[in-house]
Every structure is written in structure tokens, then in C-alpha cells.
Amino acid sequence: MYNKLYLIPLAVFILLCSFFWRGLSLNPHSLPAVNLNQPLPAFSVPSLTPKLTLDSTREFRGQMSLLNIWGSWCTACSEEHAFLLQLAQRGIKIYGLNEKDSKSTVLNWLQIWGNPYYMLGLDAKGLVAIDLGVYGTPETFLIDAHGIIRYRHIGPLTSEVWKTRFLPLM
Amino acid sequence: MENKIFTTYVIALMLLLVNTIFATEPLYTFASPKQAAQFQHLLYDLRCLVCQNQNLADSNADLAKDLRQEVYNLVQQGHSDQEIYQYLTKRYGDFILFNPPVKAITLLLWLSPGLFLCLGIYMFIRKSRLC
């Protein structure tokens, strides 16, 4: 009879295979958000109308809202823009945070692509993005009525993602 | 004689490469050489999350540029390595560190090479006893 010890390498091999198989379907670029279920970090940035500053401790209260991080230099952002406009029309409150653009570039861009934002903050130096743990624009955060981050999506927001990831939490 | 020429070339090459981090970057100045060394060492220990196999020193991604600036600010403010790692992992998670921290969940990761080695030695000893 074969020594059962010879089964160990086989078992290890099968174990490794199962890990690697699982790994094939994982996306290394979608890291788990560290700040899930934590309050939005406090920030205050200049904003376009209607108010002069976007203060995270004052806004994002009372109803669920989205925080969309974008830039005019980011081509993927224009991909999701049409969908954001649809959401805005459905009554979803979308806060925008623009990265690294000048005010005139932002206004220009919104004129061309449309403005879905309830309020739009200007994070000219990208410092707020670092506080939020943003590493791949566009990113969209789902914030609940108390200012707690419930979900973060990296990449353009599509109706597929909206239905499967955002709606169940709302 | 050949050895001397070779050594001279190596030294010249090393001197050329010493400042490559700063070649296309804003020149970062520090109050002390200790801070400069800390900054350099931190950049090598932190991963660029966009180009994930590169560290912050090598990567050209926008995020890397922003994070270099952020690390520079933190070093200037006099924070320790631990504080800076904490600051960044609080925002980006453990993945930003090239050396995963030793926590309960990563214990298997750290111990498994040792465990495999022990297993291998055990099997080897058993096999040599049987023969």
C-alpha cells in the first residue's frame, strides 16, 4: 500500500489550484474600500453654485446621496456622465468633487456634457481625494442620510452597477 | 588595471543614478539629511495603486505624484515612519504597503514558507529512514 504521506503534495497542489482559480476572477484594481461604514472624512472645498463651499460635515445629511469624483482629463468620466444625468433626473442627489481642474475648465466641461450635480466641489490639488482613498477616477461613493459611506464604486457608473450594487443598499 | 577602469565606470554610473528620482520631479528639499533618507526609504516601501508592481519612487501615475507630495508634506511635518504608514493605510488599506503587516489574517502568509520548509524536512527524514 502506498504511504498516505504521498497524498500531501497532491492536497497542497489542489489547494493552490483553488486559490489561483479564485484569483483569476479577482480584479487587482478594485481594492476594498477601507472607509466603508465610516463617516465621510471632514473636508471643505470651494464650490460652484449654489453655495460657496462644500462642507462635508454640513452636507450629505437627510437622504442618501452620491459623491462622484471626476476630472475633465479623465475620459472614463464622460462615459458615465450620461447615466449620472439620468440619475439626477430621477431625483438622486449627486454631489460632485472635481479633481485638478481650473474653474473655467470645469464650467466649460459641464456646458458641453451637462451638469448632474446638486453641488460641485473643486479639489484643485487632489488633497481631498487622498483623504477619501481615491486612486482611480471616476469613483462614486454612496453616502447614507447620516453622512456614512456605505459603498464605493471604482470606474464609470453604469446602470448594471447601479442595479446590483447601489440599489440594494438604498 | 582593467579592474580600476571597471570600478571607475561603476562608480560613475552609480553617481549618475543617485538622483534619478528627482530627475523629472519637483526638487524636494529637506531640512536634514535624515528626513531626506526617510523620504527616500518611504517611497520604496509604498506601492503605487495604479501601477501596482511599482513603488512610489518609480511610478509616473498621477496618483503616485500626488502621494509623493503627500508623503513629502508628512515627512516635513516631522512624522515618524509608523505614523505615515498609519495615515496611508487608514485611507488606502494595507495593500499600499509592500510589506504586509503581521496581523492575524496575514499570519498564514508570513509563516507558510517556514511551514513548508518544516514539512519538507520532515518528509525527507522519513523517506531516508525507510530506505
Radius of gyration of chain B: 21 Å
What class would the helix/strand composition of chain A place it in?
A: alpha/beta
User: Average pLDDT value of chain B?
Assistant: 85
- Tell me, rounded to a whole number, the average pLDDT of chain A: 90
Number of helices of chain B: 5
The largest pleated sheet of chain B is described as:
none
Helix content of chain A: 25-40%
Shape category of chain B = flat
User: For the CA atoms, what is the radius of gyration of chain A?
Assistant: 21 Å
Q: What share of residues are in beta strands of chain B?
A: under 5%
The major sheet of chain A is characterized as: 5 strands, mixed
Tally of individual helices of chain A: 5
Count of DSSP E strands of chain A? 7
How would you describe this structure in keywords?
heterodimer; A: 170 residues; alpha/beta; five-stranded mixed sheet; two-stranded antiparallel ribbon; 7 strands; elongated; B: 131 residues; mainly alpha; 5 helices; 0% strand; flat
Outline the secondary-structure elements:
The complex is a heterodimer of chains A (170) and B (131).
Chain A: H1 7-24, E1 44-46, E2 53-55, E3 65-70, H2 75-89, E4 93-99, H3 103-113, E5 119-123, H4 127-132, E6 139-143, E7 149-154, H5 159-166
Chain B: H1 2-17, H2 33-45, H3 62-76, H4 81-92, H5 107-130
Helix pairs in contact in B: 2-3
